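Task 17 of the worksheet. Students: predict the tertiary structure of the chain below and write it out as structure tokens. Keep your answer in the requested format; marks are given for formatting as well as content.
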Amino acid sequence: MGDGLLINWEKRSAEHAKAYKAFLQRVNKNTALKLLPALSEEAYAQVDCLACANCCKNYSPRFKTPDIKRISKVLGMKEGVFIERYLNIDADGDYVLQSTPCPFLGADNCCSIYEDRPSDCRRFPYTDEDVFVKRQAITLKNTSFCPIAHVVIERLMEASK
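Model answer:
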């Protein structure tokens, strides 16, 4: 995979959004699931997340109960204090960050709770799992701001021709 997919990737992703949507609606999910791990690995080899951190700067993961318990313990806080200080409930009823960028993101784009980060952070951008082809709205949103998701969908489209 050449660097071509990363040149002006944001513009390309915006231009291809409709094609991505149509592709995700028709792609053979089983075939895609077989290809995703290798495509994801290739994309991660090309993209330095620490040089980007768009996800941490602009969006919030969901904080599920186990995440809240684990992180508040690591931070030495009561769960209620952690929730009050950092989280809100969104329209879907999920706990999310009160503000962006993420308060645990350092100036060096490193996460101060990386080993204990929420499950959504650990799994993001879902390029090696069924979420990528089954939850199309999430994938389409992710391709707009995550270069890894962009590269994976472009390569998946190429491989599926």
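Marker's comment: The chain has a mean pLDDT of 95. Residues 62-123 form one domain.
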